[in-house]
Amino acid sequence: MSLGNLPDRLLVIAPHPDDETIGCGLIAYETVKRGGSVWVAIATNGEDSRSGSRQEFIAEVRHAETSMATAVLGIKSKNVRWLNLPNTNLTAHEDQLVLLVEEIVELCKPNVVLVTASSDPHPDHAALGRAARRAVFATDPALFEYMVWGWYDPLSWLRILIRTRDGSASGAERPFGAVQFRSPEGLECKRRALSCYHSQLGPTAVKVGLPAGTGMLSHRFLSHFLKTSEVVFPVNTVARELIESGVTSDASDR
Ligand SMILES: [Zn+2]
User: Fold this and answer.
1) CA distance 203 to 205
2) For labelling alongside 207, which of 12, 97, 108, 220 has CA 20 to 30 A away?
3) Rounded CA gap, 99 and 216, in Å?
4) Mean pLDDT across the stretch 83-94?
5) Cα of 117 from ligand 1 centre, angstroms
């Protein structure tokens, strides 16, 4: 896809520290490179990512990793915001999330909001996607979803889409289509940003050229996101109109 219509004010909303880079690193990089502003709002501190570790310590580590990764992408530190909701339990805080998303949108006044898909197999990711739809769907910013765990587990993603194909109250109804952003030159930067997440990268990350870490993300998972393109799904009318306003797609790489 041509990036000529990239927004000048982009807000990436992520459930956990790392999802913003995994799902949107290239788009964030290109937006900054073209002189735009990027904000990142992270719903949780990722404190439950390890069993047996002190949650405060893990949260500190993940904040530090996010600071480094977003700096690599060119995002200003003051533009990284933490919503401080409990990790692995966003579904129970969906109403609160709606208010927090409304607040951050009011603060940043983005043209485009990117959020994890309401059809993502991870419950936290889906809850955040649903909350963003409730907060933004009918308003000005173009709302796009990005997929994380569905690329790794497409059967689960498909089951969710089939289960919700009639647009049920879950909010996981299908978006209008898929749009691919290509940035071959951004891949190296995204790779460096991902390398900052040492606590999340698994020992097999070396197989895809990332440092071996102590976390759970395998080379099989990571390989889906080390590409020269990222796919997003327009979910509201403003997003669809943005897509129809002249950008062209190129689906050859994903
Ligand atoms: Zn996540």
Assistant:
1) 6
2) 12
3) 31
4) 89
5) 11
The answer to whether 213 touches 123, Cβ cutoff 8 Å, is no
Counted residue by residue, the chain has a size of 254
- Strand order of the sheet with strand 229-234? 80-85, 37-44, 9-14, 112-116, 142-146, 229-234, 179-182
Task: Compute the C-alpha angle 15/21/24, nearest 5°.
Answer: 90
Q: Is residue 194 part of a domain?
A: no
CA of 15 to the centre of ligand 1 (A): 5
Residue found by looking up tokens 């870490």 in the block: 213
Query: Which of 208, 169, 196 has its CA nearest to residue 21?
Result: 196
Residue 167: domain span: 3-185+229-244
Helix or strand run (H / E) with residue 142: strand 142-146
Q: What does pTM read for this prediction?
A: 0.90
Distance 230 CA to ligand 1 centre (A): 16
Kindly state whether residue 204 falls inside one of the protein's structural domains: no
Residue range 184-207, pLDDT digits in tens: 999 999 999 999 999 999 999 999
pLDDT per residue as tens digits for the range 230-250: 999 988 888 888 777 755 444
- The enclosing H or E element of 33 equals helix 19-33
Q: Provide the domain count of the chain.
A: 1
In a domain, 190, yes or no: no
**Distance from the CA of 43 to the center of ligand 1, in angstroms?**
10
Q: Of 23, 48, 17, give the one whose Cα is nearest residue 225.
A: 23
